[in-house]
Design a protein that fits this description.
Radius of gyration: 21 Å
Distance between the termini: 83 Å
Strand order of the largest sheet: 1-2-4-3-5-6-7-8
Low-confidence stretches: 6-10
Largest sheet: 8 strands, mixed
Helix content: 40-55%
């Protein structure tokens, strides 16, 4: 083979490999790197904008307390908003927000639980809102941060407190991942709305649906990048594996027409979960739309579940 032909033959796969690495790096930064703003919601949910902002306005009028974790560690400094119940209550809900959101974006759920008589804690996850962090952990590091929030609720409200974990989308996956941890007895129930099965499956699904790209080689390369930057592979981040260890009553909610976190993930999570479990698949709801389609029905289902699993 002539030298020029040999170089050309070698150069083509090298160029392809380099292009794949560059694309994977861009994909990682797009998906995992924090952004210091809340992106606009999807076009199909713009019809709920007025209602959404009315809930945010309600939250701004409440006697909100600012809570913090690891105040002296700038790289792990976390913040949350605490809304006490109208009347003294031993029950607190910790609400976990969605991807690239923050605690404030969960104002509608805060309002719902506040009306049900709960204290409400609204954390900003790592890499979100006013909390520190360069990257988004998709619930994996957050699950341990939320254990610290649980302990802070117990410290602030007393050992007789009853705690409910609630989350939507990435927040749903976060509380599902918490289910596999050793939780204090004050944590009584979990409600997970449209949580994914694992980051690896979610990323592969969205790559194919939105970008028409295959899982291989992109997901393994992104996983390797994450191992270098965050300390774990994407295959470690699994709601399914955590749910196998669950012992608490858990209520799964999912939109029937969700194409962002598809309904087969709901069924896989439900089948994996240990402990008492219930499932509500909401007709005609897309991703994270179950509340907005009918807030009264949503509250009715959540309230009924909690009445069944909590003491009077």
């Amino acid at each position: 083979m002539k030298k020029r032909s040999w170089v050309a033959a070698l150069g083509t796969p090298l160029a392809l490999f380099s292009a794949t690495l560059i694309a994977s790096e861009k994909l990682y930064n797009f998906a995992f790197k924090r952004v210091d703003y809340v992106p606009e919601t999807s076009a199909d949910k713009q019809k709920y904008a007025d209602a959404y902002w009315s809930y945010v306005d309600w939250l701004h009028r409440q006697p909100v307390q600012d809570w913090q974790l690891t105040l002296d560690d700038g790289s792990s400094h976390l913040v949350a908003k605490y809304v006490p119940a109208k009347n003294t209550s031993r029950r607190t809900v910790i609400i976990s927000h969605g991807y690239k959101g923050d605690g404030e974006t969960m104002a509608n759920y805060a309002y719902m639980f506040h009306n049900m008589g709960y204290n409400v804690l609204l954390p900003d996850d790592r890499g979100h809102g006013k909390s520190s962090g360069k990257y988004i952990s998709f619930g994996w590091q957050d699950r341990r941060d939320y254990l610290e929030w649980v302990n802070q609720v117990i410290d602030q409200t007393g050992s007789q407190t009853e705690i409910v974990l609630f989350g939507v989308s990435m927040g749903g996956a976060t509380v599902e991942m918490m289910s596999g941890e050793t939780l204090p007895p004050q944590v009584k129930a979990i409600i997970a709305d449209c949580g994914y099965t694992s980051v690896e499956e979610e990323l592969a699904y969205l790559l194919k649906r939105q970008f028409h790209l295959p899982k291989y080689p992109f997901v393994p390369i992104v996983s390797f990048i994450n191992r270098h930057r965050m300390g774990y592979f994407l295959s470690d981040v699994s709601s399914v594996e955590q749910l196998r260890h669950n012992k608490l009553p858990i209520f799964f909610i999912h939109g029937e027409k969700d194409v962002y976190v598809p309904s087969w993930m709901l069924k896989k999570n439900y089948q994996a979960a240990g402990g008492p479990k219930e499932m509500w698949q909401v007709p005609n709801a897309t991703h994270a739309e179950s509340f907005w389609i009918d807030p009264a029905a949503y509250e009715k289902h959540v309230s009924a579940f909690l009445k069944r699993v909590l003491s009077d």
